From TrEMBL:
Organism this protein belongs to: Treponema succinifaciens (strain ATCC 33096 / DSM 2489 / 6091)
Span of the signal peptide: 1-21
Name of this chain's protein: Lipoprotein
Lineage top rank: taxon: Bacteria
Keywords: Signal
């Protein structure tokens, strides 16, 4: 009888341990569910997410960029942030192109970094595009997600489709290339060292011919 009592007591303790062990697991599961629910927008505008949000349109005549904002308490600020992201993508696109082409050119022509540095050229082109072309990059469509924060306030996340004609972008790039070609040719004309003059002429040729022909 005494033995049965001990067994019953042990079984009760076992149930208590199992119950205690399952409580944190249940709490964690609820917390995960609540966190996942918080990631879902309570409202979207338009109601259906446009295809371009997840798949950027590609055409032969236009460049398209999808800017995405952080979450903001004010929708207009989210829109502005999304457009800034789209413009930055355009700037970085051209900066990366000229950096890649520039590294190829320096290797092919044996141009030293003190004569031409592709990374510096990339930064200069980005600044040029940011001051000109990117400022006029138009917003075609917006898609807005509205969230509820932990303090029961609204927060907005905005996606924006920004499109520009390739012809307009090419025109801006050609303007930059022509400026740099003339700049390096002027330096070559004034250079007395024959080897350095040859390198400067190659850089001028790169901007005046080989770079534009490889990018347009």
């Amino acid at each position: 009888m005494k033995k049965l009592g001990c067994l019953a007591f042990a079984a009760m303790l076992g149930l208590m341990v199992v119950g205690c062990a399952s409580s944190p697991e249940k709490y964690a599961a609820k917390a995960r569910a609540a966190a996942l629910e918080a990631l879902k927008p309570v409202m979207t505008d338009p109601e259906k997410k446009p295809d371009w949000v997840n798949s950027v349109p590609i055409t032969n005549k236009q460049f398209a960029f999808v800017g995405v904002s952080n979450k903001f308490a004010i929708e207009s600020e989210a829109r502005s942030n999304a457009q800034s992201d789209g413009r930055n993508q355009l700037v970085k696109y051209y900066g990366t192109l000229i950096s890649d082409r520039g590294r190829t050119a320096t290797a092919s022509y044996g141009i030293t970094s003190d004569v031409f540095d592709p990374q510096i050229a990339s930064q200069e082109l980005e600044e040029f595009m940011a001051e000109g072309l990117a400022k006029g990059l138009p917003a075609k469509e917006f898609y807005t997600e509205t969230y509820v924060t932990t303090s029961s306030k609204y927060a907005y996340k905005v996606y924006v489709l920004m499109i520009i004609d390739k012809a307009e972008a090419d025109k801006a790039l050609k303007e930059y290339c022509n400026q740099k070609a003339a700049e390096y040719q002027k330096q070559a004309d004034a250079e007395k060292d024959a080897e350095k003059r040859k390198q400067l002429e190659k850089v001028s040729e790169f901007f005046g011919g080989s770079l534009p022909s490889s990018m347009f």
